[in-house]
Write a structure and sequence with these properties.
globular, alpha/beta, five-stranded parallel sheet, homodimer, Rossmann fold
């Protein structure tokens, strides 16, 4: 089995307010209209994330670069934020062994560690720079526009450090950016720094299968061809207009319907798999930034995605999911078979709280907890879906990520928003740029300074 | 400065639907009633998390244990889940240097690494066991009840591994559990395993200042006395019934009011500090599990806490916060001064996208982004609060955690729920135990098995 979506617990009688048998025709119709809208837009060439074949040359270039630099690096440090980091983090968790960066070189078969600097906190960059040996490190600087201030600030710090150690920038930097535009492209041309293209029609949160995700992954030995092959299979399986046969359409339509018709606009993504743990924050960006905006009628719309992890969050968020307001759907994400399962030893036979565990496996326990939680939610009238992937390998991961990207595109049409823009983040960017003295933003009204917060500050101090 | 709470952007005219000047008297009255309810319950002795002095003996015992075992361990592995792991993870992120586990022994000044196994995925436990040397490892098994199936399953795997290597369990295990009851207590007594008490009146999500958090922290060299001193100062500052002078009451009351009167029931916790990054998931458990339940009128109530990280999530969730439905509050959490700030070098003067960054510091950039985001949200009419802590050291971290625990207790009274129970997770537990063959749960109705999901399964397969 490759991928399965079980939506029983989104339907009646499994849960109240679920889809009824006679709702399906109108949902199928609504989906067909959304699909037609996506198809019309697709003809304008904006969905570059699907054009995996067009990026084959860039993947070959990455393979050549990895082969050519083989053995040169102990550490790969990604400088990137948001869509330029969440994909690499998800790939690391899924496709490199546990605690990768805590392993010795021998435990990593000589492959490099992978650090992702996705924030500008000075503590973190100082910490990471203190534990990597610069002569054995490559910094992958990722900014589609070439103008991301957080990433450029980090680049300046790193570039200065390299230069102070007398190291050749072209040997210790690689850029991932727009093929033509932006500051990184210009610097790469000037200094002979290796540079890889983010196609102009691939947006940040849809870019994991472009060099944004595949360059760091390939440098650590991940099979990016398998990743993209799995993605292509899923893409081809999710292009149709028939709701009953399009797993991305079914996911999107049922989430949208739960929101629209049952007030369930909080969409929990809950992997029961440590390998897939960081799919949840990656999905949060995809779903939140693509759908949370002003719709065609000028209304503020969009679901709130929530990241969770099973079984861990049974001891954290599940109380709320069970007994709080009935405003959520939960998507369980499970792996069909665990490659290296561990049997629980038959020990402590005298202790009732332990004896019954012996002979089960940890993988079985995790799976039983997943089904028990789904079942408990359904009994409490709370809807859920079960996504199953056959394995947590590169092929399946590519397929899973494509599944969710396709679902997001279709959900954009259902919510009647443009899933590809993010106008709501511009104001904050402008205010920060103004405050930092960027010449293009001099006219911007000033951001309040600490201590000047307008008007009538109400502050309380302790200590 | 120690701690500040700025609530300007929860009020009018900063944001519409904010608190108006003439709302304050009734809010103060509502808070006074909630405070009285908490005080009445407190007299029954249930708020053990505040009784820091009563736990001094246990802290001394921890100090003695750490001194006695000094130099014996390279790795501390916590086996715990939910309230038994989130606190230790937050302490690790805040109080140990960045990338602690990726550091060599010398880079750690000989102090041990800290691994937290908070899930039962076999991949993770196998991975961690493959990189620690058992003769140099201590496993801290944490379960208040002594009956947490995930933790007990991990314990059985570890115990068997120790025994197969011929290692003495009493040298490589420590338990944290109820002072009298449960399987772990019995095993400790039988085998002479060091054991530390979770006071019966300290619940899991309120237990970070008990040995649940302090034992793993102290083993890695964190100053737990400073942690608890800061917490005690904050406790004493948040005991009063006057809303204008109780920072925990103010936080709780404004969140509750935003939910109750403005429909803003999604409460985002957004640290702008990598050190405080894992305060967010710790707070999510605290707020979700304490408040998401059935209230005194039988209604399903409770806010949905959402973890976020600034500046990172400006490139992920902030689009939704700005332009999605107006159903959220955002709490910014910032550190007043960064101890080791990094200046951004003045390089690339010819590139407009970079030149203006030179001369600023990374800490300044982070702080400017925090204020710019708060300002942009306010301009979009979205409410927020700004919590500031003076530093990210142990004293302040204890204070911050106490602040949020006190706020949670008070919020329980405002929402009219019992913040100390979690009845909603029992059904899932019972179903899992039944499926695993626990003798006490034989009568439970069976959880559905994969492939038997009732009724009318609706499944879609790809591949």
């Amino acid at each position: 089995m490759a991928f399965t979506l079980d939506v029983t617990s989104m339907t009646e009688p499994a849960v109240p307010a679920g889809v009824r048998d006679d709702d399906w025709p109108s949902l199928a119709e609504r989906f067909r209209a959304a699909h037609a809208a996506v198809t019309a837009v697709a003809a304008t060439g904006v969905y570059g994330y699907r054009e995996l074949e067009a990026q084959a040359a860039e993947r070959a270039k990455i393979a050549a670069f990895v082969a050519e630099t083989d053995g040169q690096y102990d550490d790969v440090v990604v400088l990137g934020i948001g869509g330029s980091s969440l994909g690499a983090i998800a790939l690391r968790s899924a496709l490199l062994p546990t605690a990768w960066n805590a392993r010795t070189a021998a435990e990593r078969d000589g492959r490099p560690r992978l650090h992702v600097l996705d924030n500008v906190d000075p503590r973190t960059i100082t910490g990471v720079l203190s534990i990597v040996a610069l002569p054995r490190t490559i910094f992958v600087v990722i900014s589609k526009s070439g103008g991301t201030i957080e990433t450029l600030a980090q680049y300046l710090v790193v570039r200065d450090r390299l230069s102070r150690e007398g190291l050749d920038a072209a040997q210790h930097l690689a850029f991932v950016t727009d093929p033509v535009k932006g500051a990184l492209r210009a610097i790469a041309a000037r200094d002979g720094i290796p540079v890889f293209d983010v196609p102009p029609n691939v947006g940040g949160r849809f870019s994991v299968l472009s060099p944004v995700g595949t360059l760091p992954a390939a440098l650590c030995g991940i099979d990016i061809d398998a990743l993209c092959t799995g993605a292509a299979v899923m893409r081809d399986a999710t292009m149709g207009s028939d709701l009953a046969h399009n797993a991305a359409g079914l996911f999107a339509t049922l989430q949208w319907r739960a929101h629209e018709q049952a007030g369930q606009g909080q969409h929990v993504m809950m992997p029961y798999s440590d390998a897939l743990r960081d799919i949840a924050p990656w999905f949060v960006q995809l779903w939140a930034e693509s759908l949370g905006k002003v719709d065609a009628d000028g209304l503020h719309v969009g679901p709130t995605p929530i990241a969770s992890v099973g079984a861990t969050d049974q001891h954290s968020q599940v109380q709320l999911f069970m007994e709080g307001p009935a405003d959520k759907t939960v998507t369980f994400l499970r792996v069909d078979a665990s490659a290296d399962d561990v049997e629980i030893p038959r020990l402590e036979a005298g202790e009732k709280a332990l004896a019954f565990l012996g002979g089960h496996t940890l993988g079985e326990l995790l799976d039983i907890e997943c089904r028990a939680t789904a079942s408990a939610l359904a009994r409490a009238g709370r809807p859920s879906m079960m996504m199953t992937v056959g394995a947590s390998d590169a092929w399946h991961l590519g397929g899973l990520m494509m599944w969710l990207m396709q679902a997001t595109t279709l959900a954009g049409a259902l919510y009647r928003v443009n899933p590809l823009d993010q106008p709501g983040v511009e104001l904050g960017k402008r205010l920060a740029n103004k405050e930092l003295g960027h010449p293009d933003y001099a006219g911007e009204a000033e951001a309040p300074r600490a201590g000047q917060v307008p008007p009538t500050p109400r502050r309380l101090r302790v200590g």
